[in-house]
Structure formats: C-alpha cells, structure tokens
Predict the structure.
Amino acid sequence: MDDRALRHVFGLFTTGVTVVTAVGPGPEPVGVTANSVTSVSLEPPLILWCLANKSTSLGAFGLGAPFAIHILAAHQADIALHFARSGRSKFEVADWWRSHPTPPEVEGALARIDCRVDALHDGGDHTIIVGAVTGLQARAAAPLVFHASRFGRFERDCGAGEADAVSQARDVWE
Ligand SMILES: Cc1cc2nc3c(=O)[nH]c(=O)nc-3n(C[C@H](O)[C@H](O)[C@H](O)COP(=O)(O)O)c2cc1C
C-alpha cells in the first residue's frame, strides 16, 4: 500500500478539529490536536478517538483517566497548530494546573465533552481510546473544518436541492 496515497485518501474525509486535554502523568497537563474523534453510542454515552502510539501524551490516557474533548471554533486554527506540535511544553504560559486537577479548558471552543477512559483498543500504530461521557458544554459558534491537510469553514447552505437533504438529516438526528 502506497503510504502517500493512503494519507491522501484518508484526508479526503472532511472532519471537525478537536483538542483533547488530560491531566497527565507528570506535573504538566497534556493537549493533543485530533480529528479522529467519532461518536460511538448514546446509551451508554460513548465517544472514541485514536492517538498515535508514538505520541508523548499516551501515558495520560490510562483506563479511568479523565480527559476533555474540545471541538474547535472556526477562528481557532492557530490553537489546532499549537497543540499539534510535539516534544515541548504546550502549557508554558500559565501554572493553572496546580489549582485545577481537572483536564485544562480550551477557551473559546464551541463544545467541551468531559470523559473518562472506558476502554483502550489496539489500532495498529494508533491506540483507540473509548471515552465514557461524564459532562457536556456547548455554545453557538461556527466550527473549524479540516480537509486534505487544510483548515476551512463549514458552508451551511449547499444549494437549493440539497437544502431539503439538510433539513431531512436534521429530522433524523434530532
Ligand atoms: C488537524 C490535525 C488533526 C490531528 N489528528 C490527530 C489524531 O486524531 N490522532 C493523533 O494521534 N494525532 C493527530 N494529529 C497530530 C497530533 O496533534 C500531534 O502529533 C500531537 O500533538 C503530538 O503531540 P504529543 O507527542 O505531545 O502528544 C493531528 C494534527 C492535526 C494538525
């Protein structure tokens, strides 16, 4: 299998962008940009994401560990890039973690989903992390979108014909 072709085709699946934060095994918290987040189950409420086994943050996601998924808003591409850089402190600007034993908050995100690690599964060069949802926060804002290695915005109206499909999708899901 051609590695470049695989990356390219996987990258054609358009996603939102999240930053996942956790308390961390060391003195500092961890934060990772992730677009592999997928909802799994409503009853019980479960969500999953995939973390590379080479990530320096993996140790923060043991069974039962709390973590928080932040769905980024359209203006937060710089935050996505900040938390995508490995091998250095990502929280050097504040010493908030001394007073906050919970996973750090990414301010301005359009939603925060608090979880505890419910299961870990082998996923090749990634670990599939299943989270049991323990809390939800959301606000109205435009989402950040990722497609073919580029950030973009969600275009709500996709033409007259498709407008019906949009409202139908809403009827099915809500
Ligand atoms: C838009 C975007 C999405 C990403 N999604 C994932 C992902 O789902 N899983 C993953 O392991 N890495 C993903 N990455 C790469 C990680 O963010 C990056 O490797 C990670 O922050 C490494 O930091 P660490 O070694 O400190 O954990 C993504 C990067 C970007 C820019």
Q: What stands out?
A: DSSP finds three helices and ten strands in the chain. The chain has a mean pLDDT of 89. The first strand starts at residue 15 and ends at 16.
